[in-house]
Amino acid sequence: MTHRRLGGLALVILGIFAVVAWTHQRHVAGELLRTEPDQILKSPALLSAAMRIGRPQYQRHCRSCHGPALEGDAARGVPNLARNVWLYGNDPVDVERTILYGIRSGHPKSRNITDMPALVRTGQIAPDEARDAVEYLQSLAGRPYERSAALRGRSIYFGKGNCYDCHANDAKGVADYGTPALTGPTWIYGGDRESLYRSIVNGRHGICPAWVNVLTPVQIRALALYLVATSSPPPVSAARN
Amino acid sequence: MAAHEEFFDISKPSVRRSMSLLASGALIGLVIAGYGLFTAKGTRSHAVPPEAVALVNQRQILRSDFMTQTQTQFVLPFAETSREQRRTVLEDMINEELMVQRGLEIDLPSYDPDVRTALVAGVELEVTADVLAQQPTLEELRTYYDRHKDKYSTEGVMQLRDLLVKTDASHTAAGAHAAALAAVAALRRGQTLDAVIKKFGLVDSGRFMDAGHADTGDIFQFALRAKLDDALYQATLALHDGEVSDPVEESDGVHLIAMIKHRFPVAQAFEEASNQVWTDVKKEAQAKVRAANLAYLRSRADIMTAPEFSR
């Protein structure tokens, strides 16, 4: 008799808990969406909620390309997200935008301002000039380089190759265009001579899908915050691939 | 047994318990139905949902779009923008939404060609978005290349003269043909082009004047195909530097091609053509999706055509 009474009571309590948990979840989701992303990063409670929602989304949807630890894959041109280097800006708002609409995803709002042109294939520069440009990039990245080739490469960078136009005079890249820094230490397709040469010869046009109709707004916000919060700045020391 | 003990003892029937459970069930059902009714997509809402900054006639202006617009307009991180700046952006976005809604209200797409073009482009983009986002694997690219190898070669380029013996009142078809044959023979014996042109009264057909200079300009093979009839085109493809074709009769006279310089197409290896292969694979996939979408739209559409177009 007492057991039955307790069972009934437990069911009622469980129901109440379920309702409270559901209400709380809705409240947290609302808070995550209404609060500005940079404020969430400063609020341990909200950030922890974002991490709780964002981590499984990463594991389910992003891990297959970006890897289990956000490390990316240079062979496939998948950016390393673990080093707090963001092509389109490091504000959580920018990261959220990229997740929402993707990069060259075909969504009308996707990030699609420019591609890396195939400078050699299109005949804009010769293969030797591409090799010279690579030497110049090696010099910028603080690696061993051949001086005379690097000097010639510099004039290609600012002249015939028109590289400065997208990658900026200081080769640090431009977030508005989504052009990467060419100074290392992080590289999307690898910073060794051969990878850089291939990028100049064949061009690049990486793609990230749009998640706007797959994930809910709160999942996208949480995912952006998870990425920004998990990522840590790259080491300032010598460049690596 | 006390009344409350009877209520919780589920081994015995209790009218109070039954009524309470019935009432609770009804209440929960009402709450769920009400929640669904007031929060489902498209239903009227009196509160702005958390993912939106405004509702304009029940259409959301998304917070993420608002933040990006603010950043773009003031070239500042969102957190550094002022309340006034945000207000300005929001008002602009509300105005834009109102204009869009008005456009739909007056059925702008039915008569404005620009809006129609934009809509078609937008729908195509939407339909092909998944295809665009998919990266073909190296194996897929190679398979495609192997199946379409003949497509991947450099474009042939030529410098040539398309010379003509006109048929008119003074030249019969037979006479023109004989003159052309003699000219071909003279050229093959090694006489100069200028001398042969002068001797046999040949003229440039003028067909390549807009594709390059008639005598010195480079002409791409694809341009040649567009300019020449098939017989003359086929005769031209095989000619090497300095060779001359057999005479070919056309409606305006008898033609012969004198090839000055011919850079033949060169087949491209997969590595060389990989960029083009990638583009072609994407294009083919997009075309398939586009066709499937149109087939689906047609299958559910009620299309009636005028009698002269009905099958």
Brief summary of the model shown:
With 241 residues, chain A is mainly α. Chain A has helices at residues 2-34, 37-42, 44-66, 92-101, 127-140, 147-158, 164-167, 193-202, 217-230. Residues 237-241 of chain A have low confidence and may be disordered.
Q: Give the integer mean of the pLDDT values of chain B.
A: 87
Rg estimate of chain B, integer Å: 38 Å
Shape of chain A: elongated
Uncertain runs of chain B with pLDDT below 50, 5 residues or more?
A: none
User: In the CATH scheme, what's the topology name of the largest domain in chain A?
Assistant: Cytochrome Bc1 Complex, Chain D, domain 2
- Biggest interface found: A-B, 42 and 29 residues
What class, by secondary structure content of chain B?
Answer: alpha+beta
Name of the CATH class of the largest domain in chain A: Mainly Alpha
Summed up, the domain count of chain A is 2
Rg of Cα set of chain A:
23 Å
- The SSE order of chain A reads HHHHHHHHH
CATH architectural label of the largest domain in chain B: Roll
The helicity of chain B comes to 40-55%
Number of strands of chain B: 7
Low-confidence runs of at least 5 consecutive residues of chain A: 237-241
What is the class of the largest domain in chain B in the CATH system?
Alpha Beta
**How many strands, what sense, and barrel or not for the largest sheet of chain A?**
none
Order of helices and strands of chain B: HHEEHHHHEHHEEHHEEH
User: CATH fold name of the largest domain in chain B, please?
Assistant: Chitinase A, domain 3
Q: Which architecture of the largest domain in chain A does the CATH hierarchy give at level 2? A: Orthogonal Bundle
